[in-house]
Design a protein that fits this description.
Number of strands: 2
Radius of gyration: 17 Å
Strand order of the largest sheet: 1-2
Shape: globular
Strand content: 5-15%
C-alpha cells in the first residue's frame, strides 16, 4: 500500500491545524455521523457491516450552509451511491429523486423544499479556522469518543475542550 503524501498546509497557530486539515476533519466527522445515524445500513438495500458504506450529500458539498447538516446526508452502499443505474444519485439523478419520494418521503420533502429555495440559505460566514473548530465541536455529539479522538487527535481534542 502506497503511503499518502501529506499536504503542506499553513497553521493558524501551533495548537490548531491548518484550515484545510480542519475541513477534512469536519468532513470525516460528518460522514461518520451520517453513517451512525443510519445505523450503518444502506438506505436503499439495507446492507451493512461488511460492505463499504458512504455518506452522500443530498445537496452538494459546495452549499456550505448545508455541508455539515445531518439532514443533508444519507447512508448508501458504494453500489447504490456510485454505480446502480436506477438509484445512484451519480448515475441517475431523476431515478434517485423518484426513489427518495417513494421510500424516504420526509427526506425527499426536505430536499425539494431546500433545493427549490423555500428553505435555501446562502452561506454568509467566513470559512476560517474558528468556523471549522465550531463545526467539529458541533459534530462531536454524534460520534463515539474513540472515533472522535482518532479523527481529530488527542492534543487537538483537548485544545478544543479547553477553548470552547
Amino acid at each position: 500500500m502506497a503511503k499518502r503524501k501529506r499536504k503542506n498546509r499553513k497553521r493558524t497557530n501551533s495548537n490548531v491545524p491548518a484550515k484545510g486539515t480542519l475541513r477534512d476533519m469536519a468532513d470525516r466527522l460528518w460522514s461518520l455521523a451520517v453513517r451512525n445515524d443510519w445505523n450503518w445500513k444502506c438506505a436503499v438495500c439495507g446492507c451493512g457491516g461488511s460492505g463499504k458504506l458512504e455518506a452522500h450529500h443530498l445537496l452538494p458539498r459546495q452549499h456550505e450552509n448545508y455541508r455539515y447538516d445531518l439532514r443533508n446526508g444519507i447512508c448508501l452502499c458504494s453500489r447504490h451511491h456510485q454505480f446502480h443505474p436506477d438509484t445512484s444519485p451519480h448515475q441517475n439523478a431523476a431515478g434517485w429523486v423518484q426513489w427518495l419520494a417513494e421510500y424516504q418521503p420526509n427526506i425527499h420533502r426536505w430536499y425539494i423544499e431546500t433545493n427549490s429555495g423555500v428553505r435555501f440559505r446562502q452561506f454568509k460566514g467566513i470559512k476560517n479556522a474558528a468556523y471549522y473548530c465550531d463545526v467539529i465541536r458541533s459534530l462531536r455529539q454524534y460520534v463515539d469518543d474513540e472515533d472522535y479522538v482518532r479523527i481529530v487527535g488527542v492534543k487537538f481534542s483537548r485544545w478544543l475542550e479547553e477553548n470552547e
